[in-house]
Amino acid sequence: AQKITQTQPGMFVQEKEAVTLDCTYDTSDPSYGLFWYKQPSSGEMIFLIYQGSYDQQNATEGRYSLNFQKARKSANLVISASQLGDSAMYFCAMRPQGAGYALNFGKGTSLLVTP
Amino acid sequence: EAGVAQSPRYKIIEKRQSVAFWCNPISGHATLYWYQQILGQGPKLLIQFQNNGVVDDSQLPKDRFSAERLKGVDSTLKIQPAKLEDSAVYLCASSLGQTKVGKLFFGSGTQLSVL
After folding, report:
1. What is the DSSP code string of B100-114?
2. Do A81 and A63 form a contact (C-beta atoms < 8 A)?
């Protein structure tokens, strides 16, 4: 069984600052994938970034980077140079590596970017 | 490229009534998922289809929920009879299913209120 834990219900960050959203996980699968999704108030889940458990380097996608520490079972999302449009819910998710598996999601962190 | 389409966007019903949600995935996506997202929580998988076959329905309350995916394309999720605790956003997602990352693409969801 897989479990995702996001311990920060809400976070504030000032515009142009960096912010880290925490995610820890537990799994018995030897190979797995970690994902972050953004959910604005419109409701749609938007894919941000992916990290495979055997990837040698931490994933980066524009202003998003994933701080992956396998031994600590953490996959924190770092957003650099925050923008007002980054205000949303952020969900960490994981699934076993391979085709056909669904994502298991954490409870999410609400991020508010202030001017 | 068209995204995942869902309808209706909102639905209000009384308890014990029935309701149906429709989803059209991205063209060519073999895998389709229905998630339930209760306010303040992360999405929870209800059912996963691979083409028109069910891969995982272990968390689907089968006494009241049913889903089908005719011809491996569109899908319908039905609740009959609805309970107050079914109030949630119902998200449909699709994926190619055979890639390393296998990220999910989500629709905007159907927000259900059961009174």
Report:
1. SS---EE---EEEEE
2. yes
> Closest Cα partner for A49 from A77, A23, A71?
A77
The DSSP bridge pattern shows strands A19-21 and A74-79 to be: antiparallel
Highest mean pLDDT among A61-70, B46-55, B99-108 belongs to: A61-70
Separation in Å, CA A113 to CA A14, A19, A79, B91: 5, 10, 11, 26
* B67 interaction partners in chain A (CB closer than 8 Å): none
Q: What is the pLDDT of residue B71?
A: 85
* Contact list, A52 vs chain B (CB under 8 Å): 100-101
- Structure tokens, B13: 């019903």
DSSP B18-39: -EEEEEE--TT--EEEEEEE-T
Question: What CA–CA distance (Å, rounded) separates A111 from A102?
Answer: 25
